[in-house]
Write a structure and sequence with these properties.
about 150 residues, alpha+beta, Aminopeptidase
Length: about 150
């Protein structure tokens, strides 16, 4: 099997749905996780010294969805949760070559379905600037009476 994916063969007209699989996983190949982090701009040079921390991301997330094209990880999303009532979706990314094909939406839907199966009834997220419309199409609404905060230092 060829390990490379020809980007020119990827477009909505010829993407074979049989070659795309989105499922809940607990582990993923380190090199494929690293490729997603780099493509998303989340990779820091210091990670190169010990990238094995990435292996804990799918394992230790409450729910982790992987999107596979021809058995290669091309997208992911995860949720942090108590697996009972509340969950936060984060780290949703699809390799640039595969963006615009609805894969990110499918990842979110798989995460939501799994969280609801667990009984989680409050699902939130913090989207990056410019992603509000994407998430609103999936049923998310701006929380007008709340502000996101991050601990600094």
């Amino acid at each position: 099997m060829n390990d490379t994916i020809n980007p020119e063969s990827i477009n909505p007209e010829n993407l074979n749905p049989k070659d795309l699989d989105i499922r809940i996983i607990r582990s993923a190949p380190l090199d494929e996780l690293k490729a997603l982090y780099k493509d998303a701009g989340w990779w820091d040079a210091s990670y190169g010294e010990a990238p094995e921390f990435l292996l804990s991301v799918p394992r230790d997330s409450a729910v982790f969805a992987g999107a596979f094209y021809k058995k290669k990880l091309i997208g992911m999303g995860r949720a942090l949760s108590d697996r009972t009532s509340d969950a936060y979706i984060q780290d949703v990314v699809v390799l640039n070559t595969f963006r615009g094909l609805g894969i990110g939406s499918k990842i979110i839907k798989v995460l939501i379905r799994e969280l609801k199966t667990l009984g989680v009834d409050w699902i939130g997220l913090i989207g990056e600037p410019g992603t509000q419309h994407f998430y609103e199409r999936l049923g998310f609404k701006e929380m007008k009476d709340h502000i996101p905060l991050k601990l600094e230092g």
